[in-house]
Amino acid sequence: xxxxxxxxxxxxxxxAVEIHQGLREPARVxxxxxxxxxxxxxxxxxxxxxxxxxIGVSSSLVQSWEQGVRTxxxxxxxxxxxxxxxxEFVQELREA
Length: 96
Hints:
The protein has 6 helices and no strands. The protein is mainly alpha-helical.
């Protein structure tokens, strides 16, 4: 590894420690809003089991999302966002 790259890496690590210790403010903070899976499911008027089958996950996972025990991620999160914004998309999923 080149010395300048190594020095940049060390500087970044020190900066991260300072931010963690509250000595420095982060340049930006990104927050992701947790989707309200229960509200999304209610919007499309589906039972947990049917909704889970529709999006390809277990009903226990949907239940965990709704209780806040787990947070949707990856493709499931994207699919939930689509259903949240365009509930009519559920009909297309049912036909697929």
